[in-house]
Task: structure prediction
Amino acid sequence: MTETLPVPPVRVLVLNGPNLNLLGKREPEVYGTTSLDELMDELVLYGSAEGAEIRAAQSNSEGAIVDLLHASQEWATGVIINAGAYSHTSIAIRDAISSIDIPVIEVHISNVAAREEFRHQSMLSGVCQGVLFGFGHKGYKLAVQSFLLTS
Result:
C-alpha cells in the first residue's frame, strides 16, 4: 500500500516576466545582487517551512506568460506575478489574469511609483487581488504570507 502525502492547502505559482532572469546582474542598485534562481530557491524553502508549495517560472515571452497563467488553474490556489515591463503594456496578460479562477497578486521589486512616469500605470493591478511594490525581494514573501493568511 502506498502512502499518500497530504496536498498543501496553499499552492502558489510565482511567475516572473521579461528581464527578471537577469536579476543580480541588471541594475543591481535597483534590483539587488541576488539572482532570480537564488531568490526563488529561498522562496520555495520559505513556503515549504510554512506549509505552502511554491513553483516558480520565468519567461521573456508574453504568450508564454499567458499560457502559464491559464495552466496555473490546474494546480495552483494562487499566483504571484512580477510581469516586469509587461505590467505597463500587456492587455493580453491582464485578460489572462481576468480569465482564471484563482487570485493573483502583482509584485514589483522596486517602488514603481518613484521611478519613470511610464512605470506608474499598471495594466494588471485592476484585476489582481493586491499589489506589492517597493519592498525589494521581500515583496514575494509578503505575497506568500497573504495567501497563507487567507487560505
Summary: The domain at 10-150 is CATH 3.40.50.9100 (Rossmann fold). DSSP finds five helices and five strands in the chain.
